[in-house]
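We give the entry.
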Amino acid sequence: MLRELFCMQKKVATCREERGKPESSISADIEMVLEKYKASHAAYHGGDYNGISCQRIVGNSSDLTREIATVLQAKKDQTCSADVIKEKMHQLDITLGLLDAAFYYLNIPHPNNEEKDRASDAVKALSTQWRKIQLSVTLKPHAIEQHIVSCNNKYGVGDKEELFIELGHQVGPRVNRRYQGLKNFRKKTEASLKVRSFDMHPLVKEQAQKVLQSTKRARPTAAIATNKKEKAKTVDKKNIKEEERELKTMKRDHYVSMHKDNNENKKQK
């Protein structure tokens, strides 16, 4: 019996060697492309891409779509043509670029009239492109298409913070675990709100900052000696970042102006 089992295991191993490693799926290859640009699923975010990953995706749309197109070309079957893949990736590149432009201009705090006009043009171009490629217009795209521009023109939306919501996602579960023994919903809610109000008190914040500073490790002498070099590196990094910002701004303006030119050409025809 054992001998037969050993022979069967040997046959299975031989079959696996002859078959070789199975080919990876399209989704797995695309995930690997996204990971190259440090865009990955966040476990704490429900397995979706968080805000930082989304920024990296839209900020590198041209390079990403080019590499994804290469993956799709290698994996395509006979029923799919190379021209269709090329066109789909081109439309995806435009959509991601317009998303980047719209959110960038909408996030400018206290925008002037020129910045408001840029935000309006970017949102209009994005809405047109969104419907062109037949994506679903859910609640968020509807709010952007119909309401965000008027709100931005009147009040501005770039200075409106939502960090308290993200903080609530972190603090809420911790406080709920602390009072999980309380079965009365009202008492549990009151206790949770009281703890949160204590944490937001200026004196409590000040004391927490003092404790944090006092428990920090002292910097070694070697690190202090290289402080000047670090400052020089910091200046270089700032210059590089400024150049990158200018290039990104030019890229965003290019996507919006390209969409404007296409609309004008259609009207002339």
Remarks:
- The chain has a mean pLDDT of 82.
